[in-house]
Design a protein that fits this description.
The chain is of the alpha/beta class. It contains six helices and nine strands; from the N terminus they run H-E-H-E-H-E-E-H-E-E-H-E-H-E-E.
């Protein structure tokens, strides 16, 4: 069996992300991870939040292999079979058989800046539609903020992303908030994490406002 892909950045950021999740989340619940990538995050979180059930997803069929290999090796009963999901194909769950929600957590790590801008709005709408009452969407990654001088590393990273694909790039937080508001979500909490990344907690209007 071929070894799954490995992400050094996922290995680094899984620790600080977990610390925030442990403080934020109740003891048990149902989680939907968007853009699970190599599967390193979902396995790590499932190991350390064992009373939560985890549904990993990926748009790229090849990445499903990475997730399944890691989940199988970890032998964890609280990780469901990885599913292919494209946030821009709405609704996310077209049939009753597809639906396994509602979810107390929708988690999306390092996707918004490496996907076309339309995926941001689609993420917000999809999360809003499948969150349980009181549930949260958590996004993680770099953002530009009004009144905050961008770090040189984030400026360089943004330039490299746009050179690779003009539809990619670090997003302005105000623009992301506007997309969230259109989907009925608002920014509940902002956590500054290492390497100039933010973990943002979004919830539906009326659930916690």
């Amino acid at each position: 069996m071929a070894q799954p892909d490995h992400s050094p950045s996922a290995e680094r950021n899984k620790h600080p992300i977990l610390e925030v999740l442990q403080a934020l989340l109740p003891a048990s619940g149902r989680a939907l991870e968007i853009a699970s990538g190599t599967g390193q995050h979902v396995v790590w979180f499932a190991q350390h939040l064992p009373q939560w059930t985890w549904q990993p997803t990926e748009v790229h069929r090849g990445a499903l292999y990475n997730i399944e290999v890691r989940a199988t090796e970890a032998d964890l009963a609280n990780i469901a079979l990885a599913r292919q999901l494209d946030v821009c194909r709405e609704p996310w769950f077209a049939t009753v058989a597809d639906w396994a929600g509602p979810y107390d957590l929708v988690l999306c790590i390092n996707m918004i800046h490496i996907a076309p801008w339309a995926s941001c709005g689609a993420l917000m709408r999809g999360a809003s539609a499948c969150l349980a009452p009181g549930g949260v969407l958590v996004t993680y990654g770099p953002y530009f903020e009004a009144g905050v001088t961008p770090t040189p590393s984030n400026l360089e990273f943004d330039a490299s992303l746009r050179a690779h694909d003009p539809s990619f790039g670090i997003r302005q937080l105000a623009d992301v908030e506007a997309e969230a508001a259109s989907a009925g979500l608002y920014l509940q909490a902002r956590h500054a994490l290492p390497a100039n990344n933010l973990l943002l907690v979004w919830t539906r209007r009326g659930d916690g406002a």
